[in-house]
């Protein structure tokens, strides 16, 4: 699954003409077949020389071997392959392959994540890395790390959004039939018990609220729509979503504001009203608190420019 995630997501990122914005290929050491722990081998067409021309290098999930766990060092052949990665290439690890990036010295002094079950061992082995076990992914600019399993989907949708804007990322997510956006800071593991009475789920109310973000919604409004007491609604909502109703509402409004900043020329005041913040002062306050920059600075940093490349980005 982890090996297939980059191609599955990135190949669905299309320009307005329908052309792919990324070219994804796969390589292995010596171009040899790779054994898995699931009873099959993966056969690839290229060797590590492909790393020299890649814009982004993705290290698919692999369990650290005994040598690495004992010494914190990469095997010589793997270290030589890492040396072939260009100095400007973006590097991404999925799940436990963060151990390889750390052993290569690429995470020293940086914040990173890996599968929550191995974070303690990672910390003992690489004390110079700040390990966060409670997030889906960490973006350090050139170096990115993702937690286990499906968190890779979130990371690659984040990359598409970063490279080409919200509209392209949302369309890619729709074609992959996955949720369009989960913040990297969301918890790796949240229990989602199935409601005993499906009719008492909060999903219908969440959709109702998303269609009314411009309105001054309250917890009482949402509980009333769900035909629950505020206490019951809050408990069910947190069990299903992993956060409180008002925190979810704020994040939904911020997400809509970010999308509008990236994809429209509307003023900050118009966007603040459309997203339910009421006035631009409140919108600026929440942007500074949650994103560390103003709405206009966010627009300048994330507004997708007109494509300048004639060739798609090379991802290995």
From TrEMBL:
Gene3D superfamilies with a match to the protein in the record: 3.40.50.880, Homeodomain-like (1.10.10.60)
UniProt keyword Electron transport present: no
HTH araC/xylS-type domain: residues covered: 203-301
Keyword Lipid biosynthesis belongs to the record: no
Alphabetical UniProt keywords: Transcription, Transcription regulation
CDD domains for the chain: GATase1_AraC_1 (cd03137)
SUPFAM superfamilies to which the protein is assigned, alphabetical: Class I glutamine amidotransferase-like (SSF52317), Homeodomain-like (SSF46689)
Domain of life: Bacteria
InterPro entries assigned: Class_I_gatase-like (IPR029062), DJ-1/PfpI (IPR002818), Homeodomain-like_sf (IPR009057), HTH_AraC (IPR018060), INH-QAR (IPR052158)
Annotated protein name in UniProt: Helix-turn-helix domain-containing protein
